[in-house]
Every structure is written in C-alpha cells, then in structure tokens.
Design goal:
Layout lengths: L1 H5 L3 E8 L4 E8 L2 E9 L3 H6 L3 H17 L7 E9 L6 E3 L7
Length: 101
C-alpha cells in the first residue's frame, strides 16, 4: 500500500470482502478507482498470469458495485491493477493490468 501511496493513490480499503470477490486493495487516484490485486510469485510475469478471466470479472463487478454504493465514487472509472511481488525485487505496479483482455 505504501508503494501506491508514494505514486499518489489514496487507499480506501484493503482486504475488502464483497459478495462478488475479495479486493486486496481499493485505491483512488483522480477519478480512477483502482481495484488492486496483489500477487507474490517467484517471477513478476507469473503474477500477471495468476489472475484468470473469471477472477478478473468478479473483481471488476466488486469494484463497480462498491463505486455505485459509495458517495463520491459513482462517476469513477473502475480499473483493475496488479501489484506483483517477487523475491529480491521492488514491487511492480501494473495499472490497467489486463487491458484488452
């Protein structure tokens, strides 16, 4: 979360349980509501592959549902981000990690 805050994100919550999915981190930057999935793998590229299409759809629905219910977030664009962690490396934040998929 500190990594995201250093990049200008405001953390709205973490480990949020919703009927659709558990959101690791919910963060806001401007009018973008980032639903951030955190994955720790031996290699950074494996973290991206670890989140399948079904999980991405659940996360998107969870983010959209939260945005619709929270005052001030109704007009935000919901985006799926990834923070990939690997031993001996800095955290890697991929904004809109699965764009186009």
């Amino acid at each position: 979360m500190a990594w995201l805050m250093l990049k200008g994100y405001r953390i709205l919550g973490f480990r949020l349980r919703t009927p659709q999915a558990e959101i690791d981190i919910l963060a806001l930057k401007g009018r973008v509501l980032a639903v951030v999935e955190v994955k720790h793998r031996a290699q950074l590229d494996l973290a991206l592959e670890a989140v399948g299409p079904d999980q991405r759809a659940r996360l998107r629905r969870a983010g959209e549902s939260l945005a619709a219910r929270r005052r001030g977030l109704e007009d935000c664009a919901v985006r799926l981000d990834l923070v990939a962690l690997a031993p001996g490396q800095w955290p890697h934040h991929l904004a809109d990690a699965w764009a186009g998929s």
